[in-house]
Sequence to fold (489 residues):
Amino acid sequence: MGKKFVAKTGNETMAEAMRQINPDVVAAYPITPATEIVQIFAQFVADGVVNTEFVATESEHSAMSACIGAAAAGARVMTSTSSQGLALMWEMLYIAAGLRLPIVMPEVNRTLSSPINIHCDHSDTMGARDVGWIQIFSENVQEAYDNLIQAVVIAEEAKLPIMVTTDGFIISHGMESMEMIPDKEVTDFIGEYKPAYSVLDVDNPFTVGAIDFTDYYFEHKRAQIEAMSEAKKIIPQVQQRFGERFGRKYAAIEEYRLSDAEVAILVLGSTAGTAKVVIDELREKGHPVGMLKLRVFRPFPFEEIVRALSSVKVLAVLDRSDGVAGIGGPVFSEVRSAMYELDIRPRIVNYVYGLGGRNIDLALIQSVFTDLEKIAKTGKAEKMVSYLGVRE
Amino acid sequence: MKIKHEAIWRELPIAGLIPEGGTAQEYKTGDWRSRRPIWDKEKCKSCLFCWVYCPDSSVLIQDKKMIGIDYDHCKGCGICSQICPPKIGAISMVDEG
Fold:
């Protein structure tokens, strides 16, 4: 079958992927910039294109609660949200993970109030980094689509919930050329869902969500941590099967002109696309620059990161959110911690950028590389954490 | 499947499930009690109000007659002594020692 390309926005693409996945239950509440995903999907439900039971809830807290109930009943379940919506789901996110329910959620990265702002940064997703969900970031519309199809299989094999993120407006509302997989091939790839347990199985009664005190809680948490560790093995297997079948290869990280790079940046999401243009331009002028794109943030692929960056002299981690009270952004803290494994490690600095949707352009990324080359030359970094593109 | 109390984390069912029904009976909640209901067999007319109202199914009956209180599960809430008709007054609450 020949390749068929279509023009779609990120949100349209995620909705189309959901149509192809045809989940048993979708429970959701609208929020900018993720609204369209479920809005378009709701139309599919109304038109009878999918068999999904659609639950329109009164809040995101209720949406995630309904998803948990449906998933515990053995259904294949999806929802979608962004920003404050994700924040309102907070306590239920932990419960979905602890109950090992493979709920799949396209999450559109948007900043958190206050000040109120609807545009892209990674504050929402990074805030949920420790809730026990797998988190995969997408560079563009195609990758977001491919990630969401893979996410169903990853979640169900790992028995863990998963969020696939797209950068708000940049991907969610940006129209790009992308290739959709034929419906039947998606159905074949994701296969039939066999839940780990179902409360509707009346012949085998059990209690789910029982109180768990000092004598068992720690053991149950230890098992959940192990499941996330197992997911590190499952994710590449699913990516490989996807690559063999559909021709697009993915890994937890993507190395871009990194093998011989002396200075490099580490980014997540749509900024990687912009950075590739800068890197190509600088490479043409003979600068040894490269990039590590972090696709899977949870489980954190620290072995791959350490291996890929071991020969870099100076590294800048670009964070699209700030820990506010930590040392720079969350990605910086984790990458820097991972690199401590090495006896000889790169000098690592942090750039917090793009908060509240502040644009990151070619010139700004180029300025980072200029800084890094200066650090490589002098051996001195003026600042550990810089704010890129803020007026100061 | 019975879960052994000393089970290590790898041996436990997924997601903290308890893979059987009716397990509340094995959970002895009697030691939560700070006040204990004392049932007076002579005064009791077996109206069974206390049996209806007890939130922990701790009023024991046999052949439609009250026969005592299940101290393994009674949490000492005192609802039984409140609901027992004043003219009967067959259940009184005393402090646990």
Notes: The interface with chain B takes residues 98-101, 159, 196-197, 204-210, 212, 215-216, 218-220, 222-223, 226 of chain A (CB under 8 Å). Chain A has 13 helices and 16 strands. Residues 5-246 of chain A form a domain with the Rossmann fold fold (CATH 3.40.50.970).
